[in-house]
Amino acid sequence: MTGIKETMELLDGLELVTVSGLGIAKGGLGWEDAALVLEFFKKYEVLIEAVKGVGSIPAEVKDLDTAEISELLTKVLSMANKIKAAI
What we know:
The chain is built from five helices and no strands. The protein has helices at about 5-25, 35-40, 45-50, 55-60, 65-85.
């Protein structure tokens, strides 16, 4: 079993980009978005971790067990709720 660490980190990065992007783009980009942009860049390590192990994801996905599938689905549902709230 390889685990799902890299897959979860990719999902964390996608969540950050999506939620931050929606928050920044809401109503058009302006000076009032400076704090959101700054917060996004403060979390750059999430983005680095998201792409650093992307090559390991196919092996992780091939070796999923029931608990890992449940954890991934929980993460995706959480992401969907956060994205919905950001719209």
